[in-house]
Amino acid sequence: MSNLQARSATRSRAGGHSPTTRPHWSGGPKPDSDLPEKPLHFGQDMEIYAQGSAAEDFFEVVTGMVRTCKVLRNGRRQIDAFHTQGEVFGVEAISEHSFSAEAVSDCTVISYRRHGRNGVSFGDAQMSEQMFGFAMRRVARAQDHALLLGCLSAIEKVANFLTEWAEHSPGGTDITLAMARGDIADYLGLTIETVSRTLSHLERESIIAISSPRQIRLTNPKALQVLHS
Amino acid sequence: MSNLQARSATRSRAGGHSPTTRPHWSGGPKPDSDLPEKPLHFGQDMEIYAQGSAAEDFFEVVTGMVRTCKVLRNGRRQIDAFHTQGEVFGVEAISEHSFSAEAVSDCTVISYRRHGRNGVSFGDAQMSEQMFGFAMRRVARAQDHALLLGCLSAIEKVANFLTEWAEHSPGGTDITLAMARGDIADYLGLTIETVSRTLSHLERESIIAISSPRQIRLTNPKALQVLHS
DNA sequence: CGGACGCTTGATCTTCTTCAATGCAAGTGG
DNA sequence: CCACTTGCATTGAAGAAGATCAAGCGTCCG
Q1: Where is A71: in which H helix or E strand?
Q2: Exposed site from A70, B52, B113, B221, fewest CB < 10 Å?
Q3: pTM, entire model
């Protein structure tokens, strides 16, 4: 009855490693299927799917981090979101992916075969509500992002970004960034230099401590909160 | 079986006028209900619901235009979207409205009683797919908006804005703007002055003609398309 | 008529970008 | 093991885009 099938991504060069854990759909409901799914591995910066490619599958992150982004003709890039463990990405309203997806770090994802007019099934009312909730959460996320891009200054954007990731960290103060400065810049609508300068500025103000480019500690979280808008 | 009920908005001061047409849900599927709905009238700049207020209802535009927006502590405002005839707004993932809604022009809306955990019903699979499609279209809209805010220059933003509204106009070249410069500015993440200057610039370049502040004709649509990214 | 309001325009200032150089750590090959 | 390369991050100086501050202008409406 279900036509969901796990499948290999054509661009994958890695493979064969078994995941040690099963996904638990923390980012939303498991869209569908009780069929076996095949884990896929992607090396850093590998493309999982291209913008404009057929949206035959959608994915769930098992380990590592994935970014979904769009590149304009002029070369400017906007990162829509970073996806971590348990989050689903690649669900589309139409038959083509409107963004590309790439591995920020080495990562493992599971692909699910899309089916139905909207690419998911609606077997029962509860599932339907879950799918709707999943979509609405994505709306809220995109709207928050638009607010950040439209209203905040560079320092406010960076403060927001740090606070957001601190919440994802155990303890809430020590952040290990999976992404490079360029990714942060393209997520926040800034340049690499501005991101770097802003981080240096926050460190000089003793609001954060940067032990290495990817290791940041919030030494004064309150001061960051003040910058939240 | 349906528990959807039309009701008066507490903030409405106008009322009693009968709408001349029935909504046709061009912006998405009709979420639910075959019950009678009561049309509500709002004068220009009136608040339909406040940010943070209980999301007991959602709405559909019958005539006029509605904006959904958020105001930050520092006074900066971000307009999320402008809603026109047939579009639904105020559907939320949570129990509170994350944006406020205001009448851009005098307008008529219909309110629907929210119900169910996600505020809508999922009576059958077809309805569920429609609701999901509705939500996914909102995702795409918010993502496009984020792209505009994050990647485009002032002139590109304005060009995008004009092109978008030209598509909503019969003929596709003569635009009657329902919103003021301040609304455009807050939608595009610019200031009033920059919007005004950019429009003047486009007029000097003979790309548009401004017969009055609200009446704009695209005299060279191709030139606008070039600016699209 | 006169005031209010929205829009436009000009002058100046700030913020962020761009361009350029340097530093730093990891990987490579002799 | 050490020079050399390479890629990312940081920092500085200069420039540009847009914001801010400040008038003016036209229109609508009391």
Answers
A1: strand A66-71
A2: B52
A3: 0.87
Instruction: Locate the chain B residue with the closest alpha carbon to A74.
Output: B229
- pLDDT, one tens digit per residue, over A123-163 is 667 777 788 889 999 999 999 999 999 999 999 999 999 99
- pLDDT profile of chain B (229 residues), mean per 10: 38 35 44 64 97 96 98 95 97 94 97 68 70 92 98 98 96 97 98 98 98 98 87
Using an 8 Å Cβ cutoff, are B198 and B155 in contact?
A: yes
Most B CBs within 10 Å: which of A136, A145, A156, as the mutation test of the B interface? A136
Separation CA A197–CA A155 (nearest Å): 10
Task: Tell the residue number behind the tokens 């000097």, with chain if given.
Answer: B204
Angle, helix B125-151 to helix B154-167, in steps of 10 degrees:
150
Q: CA angle, B146 as apex, B141 and B148 as ends, to 5°? A: 95
Identity of the residue numbered A26: S
Residues of A engaging B, defined by a Cβ cutoff of 8 Å: 70, 72-74, 76-78, 80, 91-93, 98-99, 116-118, 120, 122-123, 125, 128-129, 131-133, 135-140, 142-143, 145-147, 149-151, 188-189, 229
Q: Could you tell me the two tokens for A33?
A: 């299927």
Nucleotide nearest B191, from its CA to each C1': D19
- DSSP readout, B148-163? HHHH--HHHHHHHHHH
Q: How many CB pairs under 8 A join A and B?
A: 124
The answer to whether A136 contacts B129, with C-beta atoms less than 8 Å apart, is: no
Three-state DSSP at B187 gives: helix
CA distances from B190 to A149, A160, B184 (A): 11, 21, 8
Cβ separation A78–B131 shorter than 8 A = no
